[in-house]
């Protein structure tokens, strides 16, 4: 009775992939190839265990093919090159704008504090109390900045994972991009937004975007 036996070539292939997995992800094509090689070793009388393994391997191959197709439709290349960098830039801009606004508030509070010294004692005490509360409230900037920095760091880690996935599925994604029947990437697509929040969704432009828009406006004005 002969069941599954690993050929020297298959063992060598598995050892090479085991070493490779320590440095970079194994491409799905390699997994499929291993499944095919394992199935090719099945000969003679096949035991019930071999049949079960065959079904498991066949299901694994189908799962890999289905996963490749779904990942390609998600367009991870666009997520890595557009969505994540854009989100990171927006969050960095939030941190910068918050820091700048906090500086303005603190400067104004300092002016009020200086003004309190010229007021009658009772009024000066009221102003000083208000200024103290302003100073305490401005601690939000540090907390907000720290939390947003954590989010940015997480986004960059996701970007690294997506890039690794792109490396593993590179050829498949390249074919999907040239396939006219493949779904087109739409960066505006996403969850529905309430009508009263549409303007908030767009928000102010980033500094570079605002500069480009100013240049466009100047060119259009020259034709007026």
Automatic annotation (TrEMBL):
Report the record's Gene Ontology biological process terms: regulation of chemotaxis
GO molecular function per UniProt: catalytic activity
Q: Name one GO cellular component term.
A: bacterial-type flagellum
List, alphabetically, the Pfam families matched: CheZ
* SUPFAM superfamilies given in the database record: Chemotaxis phosphatase CheZ
Please report the name of this protein according to its UniProt entry: Uncharacterized protein
Q: Look up and give the organism this protein is from.
A: Elstera litoralis
